[in-house]
Structures are given as C-alpha cells and as structure tokens.
Amino acid sequence: MSEAKWFVVHTYSGYENKVKANIEKTIENRKLQDQITEVVVPLQDVAEIKNGVKKQVSKKMFPGYVLLKMDMNDETWYVVRNTRGVTGFVGPGSKPVPLSEAEIRSMGIRIEEVALDIQVGDVVKVVTGAFTGSVGAIKSINQHKHAVTVSLSVFGRETPVELAFTEVEKM
Q1: Which domain holds residue 159?
Q2: With contact defined as beta carbons under 8 Å apart, do 104 and 111 qualify?
Q3: Where a domain ends, among 106, 136, 152?
Q4: pTM of the full predicted structure?
Q5: Mind listing the pLDDT tens digit for each residue in 44-71?
Q6: What is the dihedral of CA 41, 64, 27, 127, to 10 degrees?
C-alpha cells in the first residue's frame, strides 16, 4: 500500500456535503477504509451580522471542492470520479495532482497522527456520550478516523460501537 496523499475533487456548487456523504457511504460499502482515509469539506468560522445581530457561522472555505486523503489507484479513482455530484479531480487532464505539504498546512489540515496507549483487546470505560459508564473490550482501532470499535453490552447483547479516542479511557 502506498502513502495516502491529499487530493482535491471538484463538485457541483452546493453539493459538497452530499458528495462527502456519498463517498463515505461508498467507502463503507466497498470496504475501502484503508485506501480512502478521510473526506473533508473545509469550513471556517465567520462572524456574520444579520438584522443587527452578530453570530458565528461556519462557511465553506472552498465552495465546489471536497478534499480526500487517499491512495490513488484505479479503483479509488473510479469510485470517487463516478460519485454523483463529482465533476472531476483537480489536475491536468485525467491525472489528479496531490496537494503539497505546504498547501495542506496553509489550509489548517492536521498532518500528525495521534499516539495511543491502547491496543486491540484492552478493556476501556466510556467516559462521554450515550454509553457513559459502559465497559468493553476494544475490537479494532482506526487511526485515520481517530476512533475505536468497542464491544459493549447493549440490552444484554454484545454490540460493536464505534467511539472517538476522546470518549474512552483505559482501565
């Protein structure tokens, strides 16, 4: 597996979130989580004044564009390119060009990985969210999504639940 790089996809205006959702669903259905690791619609907080009232709103930094961290190969190119709402990759002709590290940093996208002190099989306690107080064993760790899948007892049945790193602590 090659190193995942950031690519830019052009979408129909206003379809950015729908394209993001469609790509994420396709990734899940085709089990491409290890090849397309992140799908991002960059947002920035902006102060907006409407009717004399100032409030913070999130606006798209690049309307009409979605960022993807992925390993570029024929399958991932095909999946993304044929997603409804996608008009194409940014780059000359049909060859997508990855973003440089300088471009990524200027957009405020994090590059660092989170170091964990937990492993598959460790017992953890849920500290926030709907399952607060529940205890379960880690079944899998997804570094890219910063999430773990924990087997919790829900209504008397063992159920896999995906939780953010910040929602669990090692016991």
Answers
A1: 123-170
A2: yes
A3: 106
A4: 0.61
A5: 878 888 777 888 888 888 899 999 999 9
A6: 20
